[in-house]
Amino acid sequence: MTEVIYDGTYEGWLTAVFEIYEYKFSDIVFAKKETSGTLLFADSHWVITDISKAKRVLDGLKKRLSAGGLASMYNAFLSEVPQIEETMLQFTKHVLANAKNVEDDFTNNAVWSLKKAARLTGKESHRMEAFVRFKLTKDQLYYAIIEPDCDVLPLIENHFKKRYADQRWLIYDTKRKYGIYYDLENVSVIELQFNSQTFSSKHLTEICDEKEEFFQNLWRRYFSSVNIESRKNMKLHVQHMPKRYWKNLIEKIPTLNK
């Protein structure tokens, strides 16, 4: 068995696929950035991301997949479901071994598993587009904290760039420790280190604009007023807005401890 270690990027994974074919590795386990430490007798192969190698693999896939199929591969990668890299490798082998398009060949386990992972990411990205709640800081930066199940920031940045093109904003993923920042012209990826006091009420009061609390309370009152008590269906509500998102939703913060 060979443990293939790459840098965690999509380009890095594509480079790894190229080298798996190049060195004829057969029994593969992927690891990100460091050895997993769980495979006692496995050989380790370290991958250095090479854009030219990644492009050759991608070009081969483009000849056999539709644009939707390629997007599904990328979305599946962002899903971060267990063993998704191994599933994608099996999918890639199936694609490259056939002259015709096999992306709808659901009799193949890898095809079906990849499709499910891609749908999971797509669903999560749509939820984030709906559930992001910005707060305004004293230096007029709108910021939002999210903690999605999948790595959706690459998928939602265009949505927010178009929708909030006239204001600076930052969306930070606390689970993956990075964010996307829009400066009125470009979106860039940033990494931030927060201490334990970053999200305390005192700290947020210090950095937020003086009118921010007023607008948050206004939003809570609006949210409360449009909810008809007699028509409340909590089961359906949680289905569409799972509780794991509530801690970052302004309208839900007052009810978190109930």
Automatic annotation (TrEMBL):
Pfam families according to UniProt: DUF4130 (PF13566)
Domain of life: Bacteria
InterPro entries: DNA_repair_put (IPR023875), DUF4130 (IPR025404)
Domain DUF4130: 83-251
UniProt-recorded name of the protein: DNA metabolism protein
Annotated organism of origin: Flavobacterium chungangense
